[in-house]
Design brief:
Blueprint lengths: L25 H6 L4 H6 L3 E2 L2 E2 L6 H12 L2 H14 L3 H25 L6 H8 L2 H37 L20 H15 L2 H26 L15 H12 L5 H6 L8 H30 L11 H10 L2 H35 L18 H17 L2 H29 L14 H15 L3 H25 L1 H5 L2
Antiparallel strand pairs: 1-2
Helix pairs in contact: 3-9, 3-12, 3-14, 4-10, 4-12, 5-10, 5-12, 5-16, 5-17, 6-7, 6-16, 7-8, 7-14, 7-15, 7-16, 7-18, 8-14, 8-15, 9-12, 9-14, 13-14, 14-15, 16-17, 16-18
Length: about 500
């Protein structure tokens, strides 16, 4: 309110000194937020070019299914069944319900903030830069390590396919990582490089190849159910929960690794034609399809093979097909489907990893090379090559089990933050247009948050140690590089 009674300054007197613009203190710097409107306005823009909006709802759904369907059934099932026994079916349900609550939150934020950064960008708009960085760092762990873990399992099914068709297998010395009987996992590196080639062609071309691969792997899983159903023995379901609820929970935490696909869809926000409408639909539809298939295949698998025989079996479904039919033909068909299925997961999850780094680079938190877009293909070429080489070498050198659990904890932490972000954005921006609203908010996001923490607590101590070391490394990088080079920081100078 103006004070009309105040006397004007005397003539010739010094004017009041201009106060310099205030700068945020240390806490304010760490908590600085990027407005939703700015995030959306900057969407698609990178160094030297922009991403292209070319993906419809069907393609987005296929990206979700492509990134999700395959990992838990074709690869991790052999590790989860020894923990839970036949009750692994419940483990899939628990992991699916946990994913559902987080998927609802993702659906709301993906429609409200349709950008490439996924949960990293959602945290930036609601929880501040430091939390966004931590979330982005978790996503790098989630996506990058997931690509490597899935690629490791790809080699197992490739050997099944080669054995059934050509009568030979790739020797363990070049088909398994150190600690698993080999020196270097060449097949794992090759499948990552193959995915890299598709991604360098652009998002539309990659989505077209992924759609074909998704159709093949759904057909392969339905074929498995049809054939293996003949081998079901009621006695294989008893005892149903031999290791108790603790085993079911531990298996569920490991299997949650299989539900990161809808997160990959949210990274396509800047390449979707109508992200506000299509992203929420794609996220929810893909989760329903994948969960139904996971539970169906798991029920048939544990009914056809005693649960104790799953230990150490990474290509379990192909082995079940061979045992049930007594013929190698069906196992070869399934192995072919698995080879295509897992290649699809590698492709779509690698896509998500590059888009996360694209968003973080555009914000200045990681080097600019990750946001350079090729003018012809619209793909972040240097980003794709760097990430692919890193993931490929990781896949060739690290055993599967450690990778899968490290991915699970990064995924769960990122999902927990997304649930918090929904609650915060509802509180701070209640009138913002939302194409999808999480029902019963803040109850459902709060349940999703608690479930994520509960499943994180089910993971072993070694996984937590790896996660802690990863977080410390991320914070060192942020304070040494990202905090000063952040675009929000440079805009204030």
């Amino acid at each position: 309110m103006l004070d009309h009674g105040a006397a004007p300054p005397a003539e010739g007197s010094d004017p009041q000194p201009q106060q310099p613009p205030s700068r945020p203190g240390p806490l304010g710097t760490l908590m600085r937020r990027k407005p939703v409107e700015r995030l959306v306005a900057e969407g698609g823009q990178g160094e030297g070019g922009s991403l292209r909006r070319s993906l419809g709802m069907w393609q987005l759904t296929m990206i979700s299914i492509g990134a999700t369907l395959g990992t838990g059934i074709f690869v991790v099932l052999g590790e989860a069944v020894p923990d839970a026994g036949p009750a692994v079916i419940i483990s899939f349900v628990i992991a699916g319900i946990t994913a559902l609550f987080s998927a609802l939150s993702y659906a709301e934020l993906a429609g409200t903030i349709p950008v490439s950064g996924s949960s990293y960008s959602y945290a930036y708009a609601t929880l501040g830069e430091l939390v966004a960085w931590v979330c982005g760092w978790c996503l790098i762990l989630e996506y990058g390590v997931s690509v490597a873990a899935v690629a490791v399992g790809w080699g197992q099914y490739l050997n099944e396919l080669l054995s059934g068709t050509l009568g030979f297998t790739i020797p363990d010395v070049i088909a398994a990582p150190p600690g698993d009987g080999g020196i270097f996992n060449l097949p794992a590196l090759l499948v990552v490089l193959l995915a890299m080639v598709f991604l360098l062609g652009g998002a539309k071309e990659s989505a077209r190849a992924n759609t074909i691969m998704v159709a093949v792997k759904i057909a392969a899983l339905l074929l498995f159910c049809g054939v293996a159903f003949q081998g079901i023995r009621a006695g294989n379901y008893a005892p149903f929960m031999p290791l108790g609820m603790a085993g079911v929970s531990a298996a569920g935490a490991t299997l949650f690794f299989s539900y990161i696909g809808f997160d990959a869809a949210s990274t396509a926000g800047e390449e979707a034609k109508n992200p506000q409408r299509d992203l929420p639909r794609a996220i929810m539809l893909s989760l329903v399809i994948v969960t139904a298939l996971y539970c169906l295949v798991a029920a048939v698998a544990v009914g056809a093979l005693p649960w104790k025989k799953f230990a150490g079996t990474e290509a379990a479904l192909a082995g079940i097909m061979k045992d049930v039919t007594g013929q190698g033909f069906w196992a070869v068909l399934l192995a072919l489907g698995a080879v295509v299925a897992i290649a699809s997961v590698v492709l779509t999850v690698l896509y998500g990893q590059t888009r996360i780094l694209f968003a973080m680079s555009r914000d200045g938190l990681v080097p600019k090379v990750f946001s350079k877009v090729h003018p012809k293909t619209g793909a972040p070429r240097a980003n794709t090559v760097i990430v692919s080489l890193f993931c490929g070498i990781l896949a060739a050198a690290v055993p599967l089990g450690q990778l899968a659990d490290a991915t699970s904890i990064g995924t769960l932490f990122a999902f927990a933050l997304v649930n918090v972000a929904v609650i915060v954005l509802r509180k701070t921006r209640p009138d913002m247009p939302r194409s999808f609203r999480t029902p019963l908010s803040p109850l459902f996001p709060a349940i999703g948050f608690v479930l994520c923490l509960w499943m994180m607590g089910s993971l072993d101590v070694v996984t937590w140690v790896v996660f802690g070391v990863w977080m410390v490394a991320g914070l060192v990088f942020y304070f040494a590089y990202g905090m000063r080079r952040s675009r929000l920081a440079t805009d204030q100078k």
